[in-house]
């Protein structure tokens, strides 16, 4: 009987203590692991020296006037181009300023039958050009939009052929200076590499072309449109700060 009373008292004591122990556990703070802080996107810095390659397509619009008076007609000289560029940029807040030199090999060729001398065809081939330009742009972090302008130079070969025999009757060469306006977009790919596309319009000064063995001269007018893809490598510190 004594053992039964002791067991009953023990069970009653445990029953009374259980709610109090549960309350103590419920009051303990729950440790929750803090969420990791978000990683900030790198800030792109376009400043520094760069060098690169470019390639694409171009068309040259050429119009000839015999002795500057009699029109001989116009033709488009089209073809491919490949070359390189080197430059420097300054990144100030969101504005990007730069200067660049570019040199390209080209193969723009075309011809037409002369309206003043129907027995002959006249043709123009542009085999090289160069650009020296200043740039101004706006950086949307990894994307750079810019405009450019400056000086342009082209190397040209002028041909007169016979319509009947298709033989060359005369040729002449010149180097012509003019101006360029353009625009482009560039995207950073890795800390030092970027790629983009660019459009340029070259407006060249008129020049007088003389041909050995032919009397008189031809006054030639030239405009060129270029679309190129570009790949640049930036030296020094990487783009990401």
TrEMBL record:
Its main location: membrane. It comes from the Bacteria. Residues 1-22 form the signal peptide. It is found in: Cell outer membrane. The keyword Signal applies. Residues 44-235 form the Outer membrane protein beta-barrel domain. SUPFAM superfamilies: OMPA-like (SSF56925). GO terms for cellular component: cell outer membrane. InterPro entries: Beta-barrel_OMP, OMP-like, OMP/PagP_B-barrel. Keywords: Cell outer membrane, Membrane, Signal. Belongs to the Omp25/RopB family. This is Porin family protein. It comes from Bradyrhizobium niftali.
């Amino acid at each position: 009987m004594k053992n039964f009373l002791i067991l009953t008292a023990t069970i009653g004591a445990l029953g009374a203590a259980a709610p109090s122990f549960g309350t103590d556990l419920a009051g303990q703070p729950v440790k929750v692991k803090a969420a990791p802080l978000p990683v900030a996107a790198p800030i792109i810095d376009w400043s520094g020296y760069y060098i690169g390659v470019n390639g694409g397509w171009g068309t040259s619009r050429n119009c000839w006037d015999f002795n500057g008076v009699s029109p001989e007609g116009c033709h488009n000289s089209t073809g491919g181009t490949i070359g390189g560029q080197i430059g420097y940029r300054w990144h100030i807040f969101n504005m990007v300023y730069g200067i660049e030199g570019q040199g390209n090999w080209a193969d723009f060729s075309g011809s037409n039958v002369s309206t003043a001398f129907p027995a002959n065809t006249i043709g123009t081939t542009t085999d090289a050009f160069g650009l020296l330009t200043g740039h101004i742009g706006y950086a949307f972090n990894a994307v750079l939009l810019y405009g450019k302008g400056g000086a342009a130079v082209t190397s040209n070969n002028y041909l007169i052929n016979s319509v009947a025999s298709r033989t060359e009757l005369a040729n002449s060469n010149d180097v012509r200076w003019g101006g360029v306006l353009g625009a482009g977009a560039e995207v950073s790919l890795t800390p030092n590499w970027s790629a983009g596309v660019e459009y340029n319009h070259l407006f060249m000064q008129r020049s007088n072309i003389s041909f050995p063995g032919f009397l008189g001269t031809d006054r030639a007018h030239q405009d060129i449109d270029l679309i190129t893809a570009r790949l640049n490598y930036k030296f020094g510190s990487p783009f990401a700060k």
